[in-house]
Specification:
By secondary structure, the protein is mainly alpha-helical. The protein has 14 helices and eight strands. A three-stranded parallel beta sheet has the order 1-2-3, with helices on one face. It has a three-stranded parallel beta sheet with strand order 5-7-8, with helices on one face. Strands 4-6 form a two-stranded parallel sheet. Helix 7 links the parallel strand 2 and strand 3.
C-alpha cells in the first residue's frame, strides 16, 4: 500500500454558483414555450439600498381577511350609476341670499349684493334680481337709483320697467274683516227654483248653526219656485227652533213686488214670501194690505199677523257686498308693515269663513324668517281643508322669502301689475 507523504488539503467552502442562464431563444421563438410569460417587474418594487446606507427593517404587512368579500367589493363589483350632485343655480342662490338679508333688515348689504348681481345677470332668469332691486329702491324711497336702473332694465330686457310707486302712498290694502259674525252665509246666485247648490248650502248651514245669518244682497232675480223653496226653508227652520236672520230683505221685497199683481192667480210663492218679509220687517200695514189682496186673488185665507215674529233691524251686509265686486276686491286678510315674530293669531278664524282665502300683502313692507315660517305652517293647515289660497301683491323681496320657506306648495302668488 502506498501512502501519500503530503497532508490532505482542507475542504473548500461551498460557494453558490449563479443559476445557469436559460438558453437564448431563436429568432421568432417565444421564451418559455411551455409556460405563460413571466410578469414584468412591479414598478412599485423598491430599489435596492445603496451600499453602506441605513436599511430600515422590513415592516410586516397588515393582515387581510381573505374570507370576507367586503375587502374587495369596491374592486370586484361592476360600478353602477354615478350620482353627481349638481351645483346650486347661482341666480337662485343670489335671490335667496338677498331675500334673507332684507328680511334681517340688512338693507345696505342686500342693496350692494343685488346691484352686483343685476349687472352679472342681464338676461331672462336674472330678471328676478332686477325686480327685487326695484322694490328695494322703492321701499327705501331711493328714486334716483330707481330711475337709473329703469334705463338699464329697458336696454337689457327690451320692455318697459316697473313704474315708481312711493311706498308711503301705496294703494291701500283691502279691508281685513276678521270679525265676521258666526253662522254667516252668503246665498250665492239667484233665488230661482233650479239653484240647487245654494239651497243645499243653506240647508247644511241650518243643520250646523242654531242661529244663522243669511245674506241675500247678491240676489238680483227671483222666480215663483225659488220663492216657494226659501219660504219652505224658513218654515222648517222655525220648527227646528233655528233663528234665521235675513240680510237684504228690502231688495228682495222689491223684486217680489214686481212679479205679483192683484187678481192674477199666478206666482203664489212670491205672494207668500212677500207677506213673510213684511212680517219680519215689522211692516204691519203693508202686511195686512197684502194679506187682503192675496185672499181676493187666490180665494184662500192669508197668514195672520204675529207681533212676536217681528225681527230686529236689518244689519249691514258683510259677505254679500264683497261678493258683488270682482275677485280681486273680495275680502282679504291684510297684515301691514314690518312683520316681526308675527303669530297671525286671527288668521285661522278668518280662513274658516272663506271659500277662497285671500291674503293681501300689498301693505307688508317686510317679513322676517320666523313670521314667514309661521305663516306657511298655518296655511298648510288651511290647504288640507281643500281651500285655495292666494297671496296677493307682495313686494318681490317678501315674495322671494316666502318662496324660501315653501309657500309655493300651499298658495298662489299674484303680483301687482306694474
Amino acid at each position: 500500500m502506498v501512502f501519500s507523504f503530503f497532508k490532505k488539503p482542507p475542504p473548500e467552502k461551498m460557494v453558490a454558483k449563479p443559476a445557469a442562464a436559460p438558453p437564448r431563444p431563436k429568432s421568432g421563438e417565444a421564451p418559455f414555450p411551455d409556460s405563460r410569460p413571466l410578469p414584468e417587474a412591479d414598478a412599485r418594487t423598491p430599489a435596492a439600498p445603496a451600499p453602506g446606507g441605513n436599511q430600515e427593517a422590513p415592516r410586516e404587512l397588515e393582515s387581510l381577511d381573505f374570507t370576507s368579500s367586503s375587502q374587495f367589493s369596491d374592486l370586484s363589483e361592476t360600478p353602477g350609476d354615478i350620482h353627481v350632485e349638481t351645483d346650486i343655480d347661482p341666480i337662485q342662490a343670489d335671490v335667496e341670499q338677498a331675500a334673507i338679508l332684507y328680511a334681517n333688515a340688512q338693507d345696505d348689504v342686500a342693496r350692494a349684493m343685488l346691484e352686483n348681481a343685476v349687472h352679472a345677470n342681464p338676461f331672462g332668469p336674472g330678471e328676478r334680481l332686477w325686480l327685487m332691486l326695484f322694490d328695494l329702491y322703492r321701499l327705501t324711497n331711493q328714486r334716483t337709483p330707481f330711475d337709473a336702473l329703469s334705463l338699464e332694465y329697458a336696454r337689457a330686457f327690451e320692455r318697459s320697467p316697473p313704474a315708481w310707486r312711493n311706498s308711503h302712498t301705496a294703494k291701500p290694502a283691502a279691508k281685513a274683516v276678521v270679525a265676521v259674525p258666526a253662522g254667516t252665509m252668503l246665498f250665492k246666485g239667484e233665488l230661482t227654483g233650479d239653484n240647487d247648490s245654494a239651497f243645499a248650502a243653506l240647508d247644511q248651514s241650518i243643520d250646523k248653526n242654531p242661529k244663522l245669518r243669511v245674506e241675500l244682497t247678491k240676489v238680483t232675480a227671483v222666480d215663483d219656485l225659488g220663492a216657494e223653496r226659501l219660504l219652505g226653508v224658513l218654515c222648517a227652520a222655525r220648527k227646528k227652533k233655528v233663528d234665521i236672520e235675513l240680510v237684504g230683505r228690502d231688495a228682495l221685497a222689491a223684486l217680489l213686488e214686481a212679479r205679483i199683481e192683484t187678481g192674477r192667480r199666478e206666482e203664489s210663492g212670491c205672494w207668500l214670501l212677500l207677506i213673510e218679509l213684511y212680517q219680519l220687517m215689522g211692516k204691519q200695514e203693508a202686511f195686512e194690505d197684502m194679506a187682503i189682496n192675496y185672499a181676493v186673488t187666490f180665494e184662500m185665507s192669508p197668514p195672520s199677523w204675529e207681533p212676536k215674529r217681528v225681527a230686529a233691524a236689518e244689519p249691514k251686509p258683510v259677505l254679500a257686498l264683497a261678493a258683488r265686486a270682482p275677485e280681486e276686491e273680495a275680502l282679504a286678510y291684510a297684515p301691514k308693515g314690518d312683520l316681526k315674530a308675527e303669530r297671525f293669531a286671527n288668521l285661522q278664524g278668518f280662513a274658516e269663513k272663506q271659500e277662497v282665502l285671500i291674503l293681501d300683502f300689498s301693505a307688508v313692507t317686510r317679513i322676517d324668517f320666523v313670521s314667514a315660517g309661521t305663516l306657511v305652517n298655518l296655511l298648510t293647515t288651511v290647504k288640507r281643508q281643500g281651500k285655495r289660497i292666494v297671496v296677493r301683491h307682495p313686494n318681490r323681496l317678501v315674495a322671494e322669502l316666502l318662496g324660501v320657506v315653501g309657500l309655493a306648495a300651499v298658495a298662489d302668488i299674484e303680483f301687482a301689475k306694474s
